[in-house]
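Crash report, auto-generated. Payload:
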Amino acid sequence: MLSIKNLTASINGTPVLKGIDLEIKAGEIHAIMGPNGSGKSTLGKVLVGHPAYEVTGGEVLYEGRNLFEMAADERARAGLFMGFQHPIEVPGVSNAAFLRLAYNKKAEADGRDELDPLEFDDFIHEKIKLVAMREEFLDRSLNEGFSGGEKKRNEILQMAVLEPKLAILDELDSGLDIDALRVLGEAVNRLQRPDRALLIITHFPRILETIQPQFVHVLSGGRILKSAGKELATELEDRGYDWVLEEAAAGGAR
Amino acid sequence: MTSALAGSNLLADLLNGPRPAEWAPLREAAEQRLAGRELPTTSDEDWKYTDLKLLAGGFSPAPEATVDVAGHLLPEMVGTRQVFVNGRHAPHASCASAVPAGVRYFPMSHASEACHTLGSVGNGTAKGLFEDLNTARFQDGAVILVPKNLKVALPLHLLFITKAESPVAVFPRVLVVLERGAELELVEEHHGEGAYLSCPVVEIRVAEGAILRHERVQRESPEAFHLTSLKAEVGRGGQYHSRTLSFGARLSRQEPRVRLAEGADATLDGLALLDGAQVADTHSFLHHAEPGATSHQLHKCIVDGKARAVFNGQILVAKGAQGTDAQQQSRNLLLSEAARVDTKPQLEIYADDVKCSHGATVGQLDPEELFYLQSRGMNADDARNLLTYGFAADVLTHIPVASLRRSLRQLVMARTQAGSLGELS
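Recovered output after restart:
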């Protein structure tokens, strides 16, 4: 589904990604872990086309298409989604109207029927149950005045509405209490299907107890230093990141 | 001919019309203050960015006219409306049958005896030139008196409509008095067609613990000039919340001046949506005269074409007005290269225990916001239009009259090209 080869990217002329290789197949769940400032979020944002980052080299194929030939909105309509660590507030636009607009753009691209406000009302009421969101949040302006946790809930609601093929979730657990994290983690699990894939970006392994990855990668200094199965997450929880960095440094020296 | 000469001719022309018989002493005092005065020019600091030379063509007194008001009625307020056409009360277009007993709500021409307050709000402060012009020549206006502790459930609707076949001048007048503990929601709208000058004056007195919510909608014709003064005095613990929405007029100027007594609370929000060669100028003055009063001011402008917005927000915290909390925000969105905004906060603080904040932003849409919407599948144009709509609609969100909120949202949608996005509220 996604094939990343020797990807390099920079922000304001400073290299952040220094050669990333990663293969994600349908049905897989991958976790990217690493210390703060390692380039984890950058990788996600580059994949969804954030304009602040410049791709300086390498190649990314998404379902066989060159990802970098697609505009950000085109990538979204093709099934790529990123749940952001710090979702933006948009005053004056109701959450419900925004969700319906986003749904209909995607439906139009997929050749499905668009939903009118009444039909969407029924549809969205099913979806908010999935993320245990209170109804009043639909009438409020998009993310405006939402707490960190409410914003994350709203990101997963958007994911539930758009049903992406590949969802990238950036630091989903930040701002969430244990119960909310479990609810959202389970919601993400329920959305996962054999024809979809997940890329979980996280500093803390906690979320991986609910959303269990088959592959764990440690990213640091703009490179993937280590890839292994989910047991790596447990090891990182026990031992921290330093040993991976040391091991990589030693490996580089040899 | 110099512009100053054109200005004095204009003033003289405007005063040439017949002087209505009522309130003779008020009118004479105003005329005396006007004697020898000229229209301000751009060398006058207060009018630096707003050039009144545009008015030079001259205006004659507005003749009587009839209009069809059906398109302006709002369902919540069909029974609480007073309509004025070309400055005169239009009895057949008005209907106040749903106004609760006790509220006095009538045209000024019907009961001058009740209007002893007229012209006295803001006494002790200077009268503006256009305020005096209005006082000298207004034909009629609305009086609203709400007695002690009466909370009026239905909003009242004031409609001022001008129909000009040739350039005319109208002088709408409003007097609102809320006695202690009274509550009222008031919608004041200005509409029109043709080229004209409208100089409304609104006087408001909110007594101790009373609450007035005031929606002001300026939808004058594109050739019109709208120069309005508002003076409000808010008593101890009273509240005055206003929202001024400017969409129309070739040139408009809002001059709200609000005085807050101890513990009073005021909101002075504004939105101007400008295009073409429109000019919209707001010069506000918030006077924290006594301790413990709070004020919030959010002024937003969206400026397209070669239009121009001006905001000058003066806040005066008097000596001894401890515990004042005054917050002012001027936020401006420029949609074209030629669009222009001049924004200036002006804080004068003579007390030491105060919380005053102000901020001004002038710019384009935030790239992070644009990207967020694009990352959800909206193309760049749709994302821009949606954000522009949201920027404006944000000011409309808390309008309590649902039908008004809806119709203004539709207007904003059309003006921000967000119409193609479907229902957004």
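Post-recovery validation: DSSP finds six helices and 22 strands in chain B.
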